[in-house]
Amino acid sequence: MKLFLSWSGPVSHKIATVFRDWIPLVLQSVEPYVSSEDIDKGTRWSSDIAKELEESRYGIICVTHQNLKAPWVNFEAGALSKTIEKSNVAPFLFNIKKSEVDGPLLQFQLTVYDREDIKKLINSINNASDTVVLDQPKLEKIFAQWWPSLESSFEVILQECKTLEKADKTPQQKEPVSEAYDKILEELLELTRLQVKILKNPEELLPPKYLAYALRESPPRRNSRANMTIQELHSLYRHLREITRSTVLENQEEYSKKMAEVTDIVNVMGDQIEYLYRRSRDIESNFM
C-alpha cells in the first residue's frame, strides 16, 4: 500500500523523512512517498507527484509552527481528501497543540506527537491497507519494538525547534499563562469542536443502519427518557455558555482569539440545541 507524505519547510521535511524510513519497519507492506521538492503556494505539482498521490491509499500532512498558517496546508488537505478517503488523511501536528489548529484541517482526525496518538495512526494505516493487515497483538509488539527509534529521531528535531524558538524569542514577549489554564482551555476547545462536528453530521454519531436497528428492536415507549437527554444537553449548553462568558471577561490577552472561537462555537451549538429543546417540549405536551 502506498502512503503519501506531504510537507513544506525544513522541519516538516525532516519529519516526513523520519516517517518514510520508520513506518515500513512497523508495517512492511506500506510504501511511503516523500516528494523531493518543497510544495508551496503557487507551485504546480509535477507529474510524478500527481501519479503517486493518485496511487496512494493514505496521506499524512506534516504540520509545524512554520507552515501551520501557510496557504499550501489547506490546498494539500483539499487535494488529498479528493483523491484519498477523508478518513485516510491525517494531519500530523509536531510541537503544536490541537487547539492551535483551525480551518479545513479540523475536518480530519488530527494526530499529535504522542505515543498513544501515533499508535492510533499506525492502526489506522494498517486497517486501510489493501494488501497485508497485521493482527492487533502482532502490531502492538512490533510498534513497541520500534517506537524508541521514532521517539529518538523526533526528540532530536524537537530540541532543534526549541533552540530556534528560544533564539527568536524577544524579551518583550509575555510568558505563557499557567499550564493548568492552558490544559483546561485546550480541552474546552476540543469538546466544543467535537460537539459542533456531531451536530452538523449526526450520521457519524448515529449511522442510519444502527438507528434503524435500534428503532426496530426497541419496545414501544413514551418519549420521556429521550426528552430527559435533551434537557440535560440544554442544561449543559447553558452552563458552557456561562463559563465562556465569565472566561472572556478575564484579562487573558493571550487567549482572546481562542476564547472568541469557543464563544462562536457555543453560539452555533445554542441555535440547534434551543430548537431541539423546544421541539421536545412540544412532543411532550402532545403526550400529556
TrEMBL record:
Signal peptide location: none
Residue stretches making up the TIR domain: 25-120
Pfam families: TIR_2
GO BP term, example: signal transduction
Name the UniProt record assigns to this protein: TIR domain-containing protein
